[in-house]
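Job type: complex structure
Entries:
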Amino acid sequence: MIRKPRGTNDILPENIKEWLFVENEFRKICSEYNFGEIRTPMFEKTSLFKRGVGDTTDIVKKEMYNVLSDDALYKYKNDKFKSSDSFTLKPEGTAPIVRAFVENKLYAEKQPTKLFYITPCFRHERPQAGRLRQFHQFGIETFSATSATADAEIISLADVFFRRLGIDNLTLKINSVGCSKCREVYHKELKKFLEPKLDDLCVTCNERYITNPLRILDCKNEKCQNTIAEAPLITDYLCDECSAHFEELKSALDIVEVDYIVDPKIVRGLDYYTKTAFEFISTDLGSQATVCGGGRYNGLVKQVDGPETPGVGFGLGIERLLMVLKARKFKFNDEKTLDVFIVTFDKETKMKGMEFVTKLRKKGVAADIDHLERSFKAQFRYSDALNSKYTIILGSDEIENNKISLKNMKTGEQIEMQMDNIEKIIELVRESK
RNA sequence: GCGGUUGUAGUCAAGUGGUUAAGACACAGGAUUGUGACUCCUGCAUGCGUGGGUUCAAAUCCCAUCAGCCGCCCCA
């Protein structure tokens, strides 16, 4: 048997309603917050992510699905291969949106540009519950707004979205990771603090000391946590501008009535974040606890060859969202979908049934008929199993009299009526909705 | 990428070296000729994730491999 690739999922008809539901809710709220939908390709030039997400990040270093383009293969033969000639299945949503913003010169339109997207993402990781190789994200991005009210707006959107779905047990953690200026100062201070304590830190933290000292702050190792308890915090080293922005954000969140806790230790794994960083954490999810994460990225547009333009956004994991909803026993609408099922007896009545079912469908009635040569009784049982509102019996008696028998499956009431009285059926179906 | 753990039908499972692989749910058919739900009856794994090996004998032991789950790493 050929199996699906590891870490991917089929979404079957019985689950699709959950997806459609959250997608619709997300589209709705984005429209209310005045964000417009954007769709970008499933793959991009590899160089976009190397430059946008950051060459040193885990995502770029070891989790991307790269594929050589035809052009690259040709050039490779001619010994002219460049990394920009390979493609990568998008590992995250923001860099492609930024690319589209720049390439389509959206910065020249009225500002700010407020975009949202729904997209699959691909990362080559070891799968776990809540962590897949193909997963799906909702995301939004606001470009050209420097004000912290823009940060508060997207956080509010996520907050209201969750609450509408009845999720009120998430923790919102916010932090400011500063700009390149204050980060540089902070890095030095942090390294100075950690240097004499390296022996007390775990192996990975010692590696992180060299590659990305910020990450040591959210190590889960207890010994490391004790060691760094007194470590300097980024929030104490923010420059005036970043500090003012962070204060503005907190006031704005208070105004829009979003609860948060400041956690100076949250760090984001993508290089492009500046100033605001935040995540919504769930306790229903095990170790993959972040349902939604995002922040500000004031240098990214420039980094991707656009004009210097600030941005803020978030990514929201759809699979994780659905896991939370299931953990909270969320009731998805399970309305009857079939209005009418038609029961027939033999070749002749079946053909008449086909004619009739098509007439109903043309009028917008959800109708179906047996294709498995089932017995009369089995057809009835099937109609019941489908949860159909009405069952129509079409036998030789009915055909002879140009009539049908129509049974209401809920009340058991059965009536006879003229076969061409489709309008009456439509009326009955509408009534029972 | 690292460590741990699990893998018997569509689903949940019993079986831990011996002959025909329990049971439940689901599914399909039937209970006197054209009426569903309840009830009753019948059917449904030459097969135990896959491939090797040990043995007279393997779902059971060993090795490899694949997949799921948990933790780490990382992140949505």
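Summary: Chain A has 16 helices and 16 strands. Chain A has a mean pLDDT of 89.
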